[in-house]
Amino acid sequence: MATEPTEMVQRTGATLGPGSAPPERTAQGQRTVGEITVSNPVIVCRNVNVHYGDKQAIRDVSLDIAHNEVIAMIGPSGCGKSTFLRCLNRLNDTIPTAKVTGSITLDGVDVYDRKQDVVQLRARVGMVFQKPNPFPKSVYENVAYGPRIHGLAGDRTELDEIVQTSLMRAGLWEEVKDRLDQPGTALSGGQQQRLCIARTIAVSPEVILMDEPCSALDPIATARIEDLIDELRQNYAICIVTHSMQQAARVSQRTAYFHLGDLIEVGSTDQIFTNPRHKLTEDYITGRFG
User: Fold this and answer.
1) Cβ distance 273 to 285 under 8 Å?
2) Which residues of 20-42 are buried (b: 16+ CB within 10 A; e: fewer)?
């Protein structure tokens, strides 16, 4: 685990071990331990701040999201990880008191540019929520809705193909292929969540955001979703917020640890869980708090 303190880290008062690389600095001089950049980013975030009215929820967070990789965001309740996740496709726009500053780019384009089509952005950066939320429509229409409104299918045959392919990628086709006309809400909880994943990937996103996608599911359904996440990363970048450190260790390649609105440490999942460099990360991983 983390070594004996030798260097004070501004803002948290925590420490780095001997031989640790210098931490990343934000423009304000605050620090995140670990490498925030990647060689093949799809999303680049720099000095992101979020306020809800007078309360600051995120402070100067800088982080890259890589293609074909799962990054897990962990930390105690209220640490800002879900708030940060919602910044990536502007879901915080729906909160009147929310104010987001800093830079977030998708393939080099500012997602907060006034010319940005938010509907198209949310097709490219999809969201799977904590609680399954299928539309009150048939299984088929749940998946077909997005491609239809975005004009991705020229005719019914193309739409049928998109629906089938999306359900197959979500690992649900064999279970629902004979009841596509039945309500999506009639499926089990785990099936509903996979239906929501199929609905998300039907519009060909580049990034999939997942906010505690398994918290309402039983262990068997959770295992199926985790297997699916591993399969999906071959085609998408995936950001998952989870309170389960075991889940983060199983499904992700990189892990980011948040604490009280700060991104404390980011690194490979193996390193974060076996040799954390920041005292706060170690304390959380070992169960001293959180």
Assistant:
1) yes
2) beebbebeeebbbbbebebeebb
Buried b (16+ CB within 10 A) or exposed e, 175-199: bbeeebeeebbebeebbbbbbbbbb
Please report, for residues 62, 170, 238, 289, the alpha-carbon distance to residue 35 in angstroms, rounded to integers and kept in the order given. Answer: 10, 32, 18, 25
Span 194-253, pLDDT tens digits: 999 999 999 999 999 999 999 989 999 999 999 999 999 999 999 999 999 999 999 999
> How many whole angstroms separate alpha carbon 40 and alpha carbon 17?
29
The answer to whether residues 57 and 82 touch, using CB atoms and an 8 Å cutoff, is: no
Neighbour tally for 90: CB within 10 Å: 18
pLDDT at 39 (0 to 100): 94
Using one digit for the tens of pLDDT, what is the confidence trace for 137-187? 999 999 999 999 999 998 999 999 999 999 999 999 999 999 999 999 999
Q: In b/e form, how buried is each residue of 249-264, taking b as 16+ CB within 10 angstroms?
A: bbbbebbbbbbbbbbb
Asked if 114 contacts 121 with a C-beta cutoff of 8 angstroms, the reply is no
Instruction: Give the amino acid at 115.
Output: K
Question: pTM of this prediction?
Answer: 0.87
CB atoms within 10 A of CB 168: 13
Can you tell me which residue has the tokens 């904590």?
130
The answer to whether 92 and 100 are in contact (CB under 8 A) is yes
C-alpha span between 172 and 161 (Å, rounded): 14
d(CA 45, CA 58): 12
